[in-house]
Amino acid sequence: MSEAFKLGASLYVPAIRRDLVDIANGVKYPRLRSVIFCTEDALAQRELPLALTNLSRCLPRFSDTAILRFIRARNPEVLGHLLRMDGIERVDGFVVPKLTQYNMDSYFSPLLDTGFKVMATLETREALDHAEMVALRDRLLTPEHRDRVLALRIGGNDLLRLLGIRRPRDRTLYATPIGSAIANLVLWFKPYGFNLTAPVFEYLDQEGLLREEIQQDLAYGLFGKTAIHPDQIPIIESFYGVKPEELDMAAALLNPESRPVFRSHHAMCEVATHLPWARDMLTRAEIYGIAS
User: Is the pTM higher than 0.90?
Assistant: First the structure.
């Protein structure tokens, strides 16, 4: 889980961009924590050859950096092509689109003998089906796959498309039917140790609503959010710092001398139930600091 906390706001970048190397090396956006170079929905089919050529030229020029770098493979065939590229070891892993139990082997089998991480995207009609997600979860929990899965990404817009609707401009995603779907995915996966990241916020002129949605993301147990513009990154990550009172409570909960139940900052703290939260707060504080 702590490794997934480092993702922060993951910037989606079409793989045809000419400044791919500057983005990957932290020159273009110095505050970037993670980036996903997309060969799927961000591109038209006719642009795919250009994207793959661009990646093959840029990968050997990726330098050592703390930025987590991923490529979103359009399909298993594209993943195989990427794995054969010089310099592919300079990325941390791959984002798998539209993962189900039926296409899982096509994506995961080529990665078995590699150190690449996977972020699988839940964005098909199967993501709305309890039995389908339990079957997928059980396969992801097998020893050969569990440590490879860094996070599960929720594809909000694709799920909305299945319902024939678009996110309204005046409300968060949680005020649509997808809010219930997100709650279900959290219940089906998070108790088993999977981190889930929050969907994209597509309106660039609704900063107040974005802030409201990030707070709801966190309330639902989601950490990390897709960013479609660099201006969204500091807004998203400003909510990932830990408030001073949260840090105080976390430290007290982790203190072996603390009573099983005690009061702190006008809140009940119970070691038996709040310990995982306390560990997460300390990890977030190490990465994102103390919130103002």
Answer: yes
